[in-house]
Structure formats: structure tokens, C-alpha cells
Design a protein that fits this description.
The complex is a heterodimer. In chain A, about 30% of the residues lie in helices and about 25% in strands. In chain A, strands 1-2-3-4-5 form a 5-stranded mixed barrel. In chain A, strands 7-14-8-9-10 form a 5-stranded parallel beta sheet. Chain A has a 5-stranded antiparallel beta sheet with strand order 19-20-23-22-21, sandwiched between helices. By secondary structure, chain A is an alpha/beta fold. Chain B is built from 11 helices and 18 strands. Classes of the chains: A alpha/beta, B alpha+beta. The interface between A and B is large, with 41 and 35 residues.
Chain lengths: ~450, ~475
């Protein structure tokens, strides 16, 4: 076993780990990133990026199918077919390009990448088994734990033999004819909807009384409507019991029934990856299943840091990335802190949902007296020209001083509004700031200004 | 594009570390060759480090006050062309401060820019990660803007538990300055804390006025307890002074001896010389060009030292001990027994208070100067010290030091020896006091000398003899001008 020492050892090359690696390198710290899988973590390899690629394929296919059936825009095409194998190969190309892009960024920052699996011996020492079988012991002044998260399995319906997680769903080369999705959260709905567009007969099983349980019904209603239009059977208040030869047995308030399914996609959540890397040797303070950290991403052990999904909700790549920057600056001795006003979240269903900050219900639960403005995209000319007028933009602000505390939207292509939403909250915008900003016409973003004006009682276009 | 790493220069004098005084640029800023990037300070002088080539500043390593080892990374530049990964720490001359561009090490293949940016990492790939935040970070306390109108009228206090509203840039700046935004009143809409609100806190800290802190209202005329505590890093020249004082008092057993001097005769002589000089009747033509400087007491005191020190060589000396940290005379060979090094030349350090702190310019070879040229030299050095233009040569090499607070000289001081020297002469305030002479009180111009000595090499007996010799010369100033 060879030995080496470095200033910073980062365990995990996902969005948190690789950004920490880049920033630490920029700051002149000798840094090593260890990961046994291609760089980019879950997000890049088996998460956000491939799923968005698949969703794009499904959207294009659905549009082509619609033109073939109805020709609403006067475009006539022959009945389209889908070669999912080729689509997945296209997706894999994107992933590979990004894998190597991350590698180049790390190299540019003079950060080393070791391909291998890490086992912590103590808080400053890790044994790494390389993918090539070599072994080395790395000691470090600082250790950053960025091990991420993994899909949760159902004990009664374990993975394998037709039961797949999101990882396998993104690598399918054939469209499954009968797909049952257990879990109506954002991962299940994004993938379920994509496969429905590609031709699968999809059933979604959700234990809670509504899909996307963490979002309010106003936001989820257009998505539910769209699922119905796609022919997706949504069973809320229903739990999956077992898998039999006949299909998936589920239980709802009206008793048990069996859903015909050749493929079962289990998306009931993700859990922090805290086992298998020797973390138990460290005895770190935990926060539930997560590693407890302070606002600098420091754990309970000196010079041991943790970022990303392993540290808590929301398990989102952009949270991990910002933490990666913070942790590198903290290690470099800078007074860094992870103190966002809000962390945007997006559901890439059709229509898309974007939320930043507090919903009206959450604001009230926080004891805030709020005013709410809503602008339907039905009244937005750009949405009409995109042949999509579902959804709305919503602004939530304090009643006393009009400080915006939350911005949400649901609608086609509203994900990009997250940029403006996030900026408005971080900059401490008031409704008047947004209302008085000239928004280009015709854009979906006009809905943001109109929602602010609506909250102030003088929206122009409704 | 490539990266060029510029290391902390070797400023000579055997200095192993320097203190970062300030950055002249911010991360992400485009700079030209020879543009000043940083100011670093040794215990002798301040040196500007310029950019060796045109480029864009990527990373500035360290903050003002950090002590950096010679050879460690100071900053990196993104440069045109193939780019180097390293630039070796080359010797630069302190006064000239030129960094060579040589010592190129081939970089790895330059990255095609388009490919180096990924969709996921585009943001992180931007060279200036800090942006405006980084710019703010370099100014712990920014220069005050012109008188800023403080928002008048009442500002509603922020309700308990509400998060302060501030942009990310303001939050970062506050964090880096150690300011808890919960204590800052925001004057912006919805109580937003602006950069100007933070500036007001900085200004208040600088002028000593009370910042408009939340909850610290001051009802008219009522005296209130002040709960504020201010921490200030001890950096820059202050740190150098602190280190020097600790080194001196912790290694040198001081003995301080105070004696009064009757300056009446010397003052009469000094007045006569100054008057004569003004009238031009005593011009000898041997001194300087142009008019003669006005004589202060200092040139006479230096003359007295020059006259007496040959008989007291231990007072014009250095003690070189293993703890001497790179001081004069190369005393860094540790492990040797201590050495007493005496000097033929008299190099008189003159402790001088400047806006930047205490500095000690040196009149070299005072034994070779006349009364007038000494006065001229003192004037030049004081001016250079006050304007910050004194070079390392002006500030090093003293073998004995005089310290004087002028009108603030007081009755008695306990001067701290300017290590590695052995003797410091403190000049107290001259006043007219009644002195008992020949059966009556006579008004005389009296002045105390408070002198400290290194008791390791100077006994009290010798210290007393030395001061008495100075007293004899100063009280009978004719002795100053008689070859002995």
C-alpha cells in the first residue's frame, strides 16, 4: 500500500465534491477527490442530467405523436416511432461529455482525482482501493465527506427482477409496456410522465392523499390534470403491498387490487449514504439519518467536513454545489458560511413546477401575515404562442413591508424562472421592486411582474 | 490561457517571512505588467510586489495581516499564451521590487475553453469565484466615502427572530468583517441592510461614534451603559512593534537610571547659535548647501554620545544571543554563546512617532558629522519617516537609540531597549525648576534623562558613570567641542 498526504481529501466526486475540489484548487489548496464512479455523482450519471435528457426525448416524441394525430399547428407527420436504445445512447453521450468536462475542470484547478473507493480509518486517514485494484493510504489535514445519497428500497418489493430504481429506469433500452411507479414524488412523476409519453401504460401509486406531497395543491393541480390527459392512472392514498405473478398488489381505502405491471419503478425516496465508507469509526454527531453540520459545513470532528445529500434535505445538486464552495473557502481560512435565503426546487414534470422560498401556507405556519398574488399563464401571450396556457406564477410577500418571501410557478418552461425567483429573494426584493422592473414582452417571465402587481392589487392583464 | 503562480518574493536581508499589508487589486481584476498587486512588509520596510506580466488576477492568497513564508504562493494570474504553472521565488531587491518572469515550467496542455465548461459546472468554472464578494473581502474596513447622509427619522426595529434582509454581497462583507447583521439597522426598503448601512457601521467604528445598533437607542441626555466590545487585529507595523517589544523585554533584563541635567548653559549656547545662524554672522561655509537648520537639543545630545561612547564601548554595542531573530549583524547562528559586539562608529537611532506607528530612522556614523550636518540629517530622516519614504537603509543599522516625546516627555520614562542594542537614552521634558545653588533657589532649565541598559552586559555602576559623563558634557557644553 502506497501512502500520500494532501491538504484536502474529498470523498465523493458528485456536484458537492467536485465543486469543492475545483474551489479548493483555485484557492491553492492541495486537494484530492476520490470516487469510484465517473465524476459528477448521482446527478450527472444517474439523476438530474440523464432524466432531463430522457424527458426531452419523451417531449419531442409526444409532440411528434400529437402532430401525427391532430396536427393542431398544421404540421402533418407520419406516426413516429421511438428507438429507446438510440435515445439512451444519445443521453449517455451527454453524460460522458459532462464526466470528462468535470475532470478537465478539476485538472485546471490542479486538483487530483483518484478513481477508487474510500474507507475512512480515522478522521484524517482513508484507505483507497482503486478501480484498478491498487491500494493506497491517504492522510489529509481536512476531510470532506460528500458521499451523497442512494435510492431507498422497499423491503416487501426489493430491487431486481423487474423492480427497478431511477438508475435502471434511465438505462432502459425498451419502453416498458406496463409501468407501475411506486412513489408520486418528483422523481416518480418525472419518469412516469416521460414513459407515458413514450407509450407506456403507467400507474402511479402514492401513499399520501396527493401527488407531490411537499407542494401545495394549487401547484400540483395542473400536473395532476396533465397526468390524467396522458392516461396515467394516479392512485393516491394507496400503498404497494407485494409483487405477484399477476402484477403489483396495492391497498387503498377501498381495499386491495392488483395492477398489471411488467416493470415496477420504486421511487419512494433517497437516503444519505453514511455506511460503507467507515464513517462509523468517526462517531460523528448525527441529525437524524444525516451527518450534523454547522453553517460552515463542519461536522462534530475537527477538520472533518460534510456537504450535500449526506447532510440533509433538500437533497439537491445546487445545494451541494454551494456547500462545496463554502467548505473549500472555510478550509482555506476564509469566513465562509452557507446562509441562503432560499434554495430553489424544480419538478421537471409537464407542466414544470418551480418553487423558491415559502408558499402561502408555509408563510402562515411561520407566523407571517402575507399577501399573495397569482397570475394565470392563460393571460400570458407568450404561453399561448407556445401552445401551452396551463399554470400560473405566484408571489408571496409580507403584508407589512411587502418583502417577497416566496415565489412559485407551474407551467410549461417555467423552470428557468428559478433564476429570477432566487435572485429576487436573495436580494431582498419587495413586490414593488419586481413590479417596477421592466420584463421583456412577450415572455413567460412577465407573469412574475404581474404576480407582484396582483399581490399589490393592480395587475394589468387580468 | 494559462496560470502563472507568483510566490512571496525573497526581499533579501535573510528575511524568511513577510507580512501581507494590503492587496492593491481584487480577484478577477485585469492587471498590467508592473502594476502593484500587493504590499508586503518585513520588519524593515514595506515592499510593493508588481505583476510580472499582463493578466487577470485569479487567486489572492491570504488576507491583510497574514504572515506569509518566502516562497509560498502569493497570487495567481491567468495569462495569455501557453502559461506557466509556476514562477519560482526569485530574489528581488527590496527597494526595487522587481519580480522576474523567468523560470518557466511547461504547463499541461491548455484546455480548449469551450470544452472546459460543462453545463453543470459552468458557474464554478468562472475564474473569479468571489466576484464582488471577493472585492469586498480585501477591504476589512473600506475607506470612508464622503460624508454620507445618515438616514434621518425613526427606523422600525426588526421584530424578534426575523432574519436580517441583505443581499448576498452585503452578507459576505459583514461576515468577513465579523459583523453580526442582526445588530445592524437596515435603512432600505423593508429594512434591507445596504452597503451604505454597513459603511455607517465601519465609519462609526473608526470615529468612535456609536453605530446605530438595533436596540441601543439613546434617549436624549440620558447616560447609558455601553455594552459594545470591539476586537481589532494587531497587524501591520503594530504587530512588528509588538513582537520587537516582547522580544526586547523578555530577553533583556533592563536597568533604568534617571538623572537630571541642568540645560541652562546649553540652552543659552543653542539660542546663540540659532540666532547667529539666522543672521549669517557665523557662517563657516563648511556645512551643507543653503541655510543652516535650526538646532534642537538632539544634535548636542548626539555630540555628547559621540564624545563619551569611546570610553563606554558596551553602550554602543549589540548583544547577539541565540534568540536574536535575524537582527543586525547576522545573529541567527543559534546555539552559540551570546556575543557582545561593539562598534567603532556611532549609529544613532532616533525613535520617531509617525501616523503609521513607531519607526526608528538612523543617523549613521554620527562621529563623522558636525553639529550642523547632524541636525540636517535628523531633519531629513524625520521627514522621510513621517512621509513613509524611508528606505531599509535609513531604518537599519543603529547601535544606540535616543527616544524623545518632546513636549510630552514627562518627568521620567522607562524606555525599552531597541534590541539587539544595549542602551537607549530617553529624553524627558525640559522645564524651569528652582534649583538650590549657593544658598538660594535659582530658576534653571532642567531636563531629565531616563536611560535603560542591558544589565547582562552593563552594570549599574557603569550605567551611572555613563549618564554622569553625559550630564557633565551637557551642563558644560564647551566640553562638547573640545577634542578629548
Amino acid at each position: 500500500m502506497t501512502a500520500r498526504h494532501t491538504q484536502v481529501l474529498i470523498i465523493g466526486g458528485g456536484p458537492g465534491g467536485y465543486v469543492a475540489g475545483i474551489r479548493a484548487g483555485q484557492l491553492g489548496l492541495e486537494t484530492v477527490v476520490v470516487d469510484g464512479l465517473p465524476l459528477g455523482g448521482t446527478c450527472l450519471n444517474v439523476g438530474c442530467i440523464p432524466s432531463k435528457a430522457l424527458i426531452h426525448v419523451a417531449d419531442e416524441f409526444a409532440i411528434a405523436t400529437d402532430q401525427a394525430k391532430r396536427a393542431p399547428l398544421g404540421i402533418s407527420v407520419a406516426d413516429p416511432t421511438i428507438d429507446l436504445g438510440q435515445a439512451v445512447a444519445w443521453k449517455d453521450g451527454i453524460v460522458r461529455k459532462l464526466n470528462s468536462g468535470v475532470g478537465r475542470l478539476l485538472a485546471k484547478a490542479h486538483t487530483d482525482v483518484v478513481e477508487g473507493w474510500c474507507t475512512l480509518v480515522d478522521g484524517k486517514t482513508a484507505d483507497v482501493t482503486g478501480v484498478d485494484g491498487s491500494t493506497q493510504r491517504i492522510t489529509a489535514d481536512h476531510v470532506v465527506i460528500a458521499t451523497g445519497s442512494e435510492p431507498v428500497a422497499l423491503p416487501a418489493i426489493p430491487f431486481g427482477d423487474g423492480v427497478i430504481s431511477s438508475t435502471e429506469a434511465l438505462a432502459l433500452t425498451e419502453v416498458p409496456p406496463l409501468l407501475a411507479v411506486i412513489g408520486g414524488g418528483y422523481i416518480g412523476l418525472e419518469l412516469g410522465m416521460a414513459f407515458a409519453k413514450l407509450g407506456s401504460i403507467v400507474t402511479v401509486v402514492e401513499a399520501e392523499p396527493q401527488i407531490l406531497p411537499i407542494y401545495d395543491r394549487q401547484l400540483t393541480a395542473p400536473v395532476a390534470k396533465s397526468l390524467t390527459a396522458l392516461g396515467v392512472d394516479v392512485l393516491t392514498g394507496t400503498t404497494a403491498v407485494e409483487l405477484t405473478d399477476d402484477g403489483l398488489v396495492v391497498e387503498g381505502s377501498d381495499g386491495r387490487r392488483t395492477i398489471a405491471a411488467d416493470t415496477v419503478l420504486v421511487t419512494v425516496g433517497r437516503r444519505p449514504r453514511v455506511s460503507g465508507v467507515g464513517l462509523e469509526h468517526l462517531g460523528l454527531s448525527m441529525n437524524g439519518p444525516f451527518i450534523a453540520i454547522d453553517d460552515r459545513c463542519h461536522t462534530s470532528m475537527r477538520n472533518v467536513w460534510a456537504i450535500g445529500d449526506v447532510t440533509g434535505e433538500p437533497m439537491l445538486a445546487h445545494r451541494a454545489m454551494k456547500q462545496g464552495e463554502v467548505v473549500a473557502e472555510a478550509i482555506a481560512g476564509r469566513p465562509a458560511a452557507f446562509d441562503p435565503t432560499a434554495i430553489p426546487a424544480i419538478v421537471f414534470t409537464d407542466p414544470e413546477i418551480v418553487t423558491v422560498g415559502l408558499s402561502p401556507e408555509q408563510a402562515e405556519a411561520d407566523g407571517l401575515d402575507v399577501i399573495v398574488g397569482r397570475f394565470p399563464l392563460q393571460a400570458n401571450s407568450r404561453s399561448m404562442t407556445l401552445a401551452s396556457d396551463r399554470g400560473f406564477v405566484r408571489a408571496v410577500a409580507r403584508a407589512d413591508d411587502h418583502l417577497v418571501v416566496g415565489l412559485q410557478a407551474v407551467g410549461r418552461s417555467v423552470a428557468e424562472l428559478s433564476t429570477a425567483f432566487g435572485l429576487a429573494l436573495e436580494m431582498g426584493a419587495r413586490l414593488e421592486d419586481i413590479g417596477d422592473t421592466i420584463h421583456a414582452h412577450p415572455t413567460i417571465g412577465e407573469g412574475l411582474a404581474e404576480s407582484a402587481l396582483a399581490a399589490l392589487g393592480h395587475a394589468l392583464h387580468i | 490561457m494559462g496560470r502563472l503562480t507568483i510566490k512571496v518574493p525573497d526581499v533579501g536581508e535573510g528575511v524568511a517571512e513577510v507580512e501581507l499589508v494590503s492587496w492593491a487589486v481584487t480577484e478577477g481584476q485585469a492587471v498590467e505588467r508592473n502594476q502593484t498587486i500587493a504590499e508586503v512588509m518585513t520588519d524593515k520596510a514595506t515592499v510593493e510586489v508588481p505583476a510580472p506580466v499582463d493578466g487577470v488576477v485569479q487567486v489572492l492568497s491570504g488576507a491583510a495581516g497574514d504572515v506569509l513564508l518566502v516562497g509560498s504562493t502569493l497570487f495567481t494570474l491567468e495569462v495569455e499564451g501557453e502559461g506557466d504553472t509556476e514562477i519560482a521565488a526569485e530574489r528581488i531587491v527590496a527597494a526595487e521590487a522587481a519580480i522576474p518572469t523567468g523560470a518557466e515550467i511547461p504547463a499541461e496542455a491548455a484546455l480548449p475553453e469551450a470544452e472546459a465548461v460543462t453545463a453543470a459546472g459552468a458557474g464554478a468554472a468562472a475564474p473569479a469565484g468571489g466576484g464582488t464578494g471577493a472585492a469586498a473581502s480585501t477591504e476589512a474596513i473600506p475607506a470612508p466615502a464622503a460624508a454620507r447622509p445618515v438616514t434621518a427619522g425613526p427606523v422600525a426595529p426588526r421584530p424578534e427572530g426575523r432574519r436580517p434582509i441583505a443581499t448576498p454581497a452585503v452578507r459576505r462583507r459583514a461576515r468577513e468583517a465579523g459583523i453580526d447583521l442582526r445588530t445592524v439597522v437596515g435603512t432600505g426598503p423593508a429594512g434591507r441592510i445596504s452597503h451604505e448601512d454597513l459603511d455607517a457601521v465601519f465609519d462609526a467604528a473608526r470615529t468612535g461614534a456609536r453605530p446605530a445598533a438595533a436596540g441601543v437607542g439613546s434617549a436624549a441626555g440620558r447616560r447609558q451603559p455601553d455594552p459594545t466590545v470591539a476586537d481589532q487585529p494587531i497587524i501591520g507595523i503594530r504587530r512588528k512593534i509588538a513582537e520587537q517589544m516582547v522580544a526586547s523585554t523578555s530577553t533583556i533584563p533592563h536597568i533604568t537610571y534617571v538623572e537630571e541635567i541642568d540645560m541652562t548653559a546649553l540652552e543659552e549656547l543653542r539660542a546663540a547659535l540659532n540666532t547667529a545662524s539666522t543672521e549669517g554672522t557665523m557662517r563657516t561655509g563648511s556645512d551643507g548647501d543653503g541655510g543652516r537648520p535650526r538646532l534642537t537639543v538632539l544634535p548636542f545630545l548626539i555630540r555628547a554620545l559621540v564624545n563619551e561612547l569611546p570610553r563606554f564601548p558596551n553602550m554602543n554595542a549589540h548583544v547577539i544571543d541565540p534568540s536574536t531573530n535575524g537582527g543586525e549583524g547576522g545573529g541567527r547562528r543559534s546555539g552559540e554563546p551570546g556575543t557582545l559586539r561593539t562598534f567603532g562608529g556611532v549609529h544613532v537611532g532616533i525613535a520617531t512617532q509617525t501616523d503609521g506607528g513607531l519607526v526608528v530612522p538612523v543617523v549613521h556614523h554620527a562621529e563623522a558629522e558636525s553639529l550642523w550636518s547632524t541636525a540636517t540629517r535628523i531633519g531629513e530622516l524625520a521627514e522621510a519617516a513621517r512621509t513613509g519614504t524611508a528606505g531599509p537603509a535609513d531604518l537599519t543599522g543603529s547601535t544606540i537609540t535616543i527616544t524623545s516625546l518632546g513636549p510630552l516627555g514627562g518627568l521620567v520614562t522607562t524606555p525599552v531597549i531597541n534590541k539587539p542594542e544595549t542602551t537607549i537614552v530617553g529624553v524627558n521634558k525640559m522645564t524651569i525648576r528652582p534649583v538650590w545653588i549657593d544658598g538660594e533657589f535659582v530658576p534653571r532649565k532642567m531636563m531629565n534623562l531616563s536611560c535603560s541598559f542591558d544589565h547582562r552586559v552593563i552594570d549599574g555602576w557603569d550605567a551611572a558613570r555613563f549618564v554622569q559623563a553625559l550630564k557633565r558634557s551637557l551642563e558644560q557644553p564647551a566640553l562638547l567641542f573640545i577634542d578629548q
